[in-house]
Specification:
Length: about 170
């Protein structure tokens, strides 16, 4: 678990370094209230395949909330997933009914952990593309974001030097 954390942290730092200033200030920005999505991106993938979106969700409210669903027209199905490590070291993805979002707190959707899964892409998601994703929260309602497509290897594969993670087989998907 530690290995994955280090890997993901490197990706998050990379993201915040290049993701600043690209948000448009629409529904996802409700200053000091409700739920905000930050630093979102989705992994590039081919039509017919699967992809996943990652983001930081911030709950500004004083009550706990939860992500209870997501929808997009880029895929046949959009599900909430959690990737987790089995005792034998293999990764598996488990569908989640919801992803809890604590009061005045945040939850990170990231490779190898929580993610929004796109199953059966209707078109290629190429690096540089964007698509619309609607997130549904238990209390905050719907938040629609425009998600940029990025190269997952690039997002997570850099900044790994010095972590001695034993090679790419430690990289979970998605
Ligand atoms: Cu998944």
């Amino acid at each position: 678990m530690k290995k994955i954390y280090a890997f993901v942290l490197a990706g998050a730092l990379l993201l915040s370094a290049c993701g600043g200033g690209m948000t448009g200030g629409d529904a996802e920005h409700m200053d000091g209230e409700g739920v905000e999505a930050h630093d979102y991106w989705a992994r590039a993938a081919m039509a017919g395949g699967n992809s996943a979106a990652y983001m930081l969700l911030h709950n500004h409210g004083t009550e706990a909330d939860a992500l209870i669903g997501a929808s997009s027209d880029v895929a046949d199905a959009v599900e909430l997933h959690l990737s987790q490590m089995n005792a034998d070291g293999t990764m598996e993805m488990v569908q989640q009914e919801k992803i809890d979002l604590p009061a005045d707190g945040e939850v990170e959707l990231k490779p190898g952990s929580y993610h929004v899964m796109f199953i059966g892409l209707k078109k290629d998601l190429a690096v540089g593309d964007e698509f619309t994703l609607t997130l549904t929260f238990e209390k905050a309602g719907e938040v629609t974001i425009t998600v940029p497509v990025k190269d997952a290897a690039e997002m997570g594969g850099e900044g790994m030097d010095g972590h001695n993670m034993g090679g790419m087989e430690a990289t979970p998907t998605p």
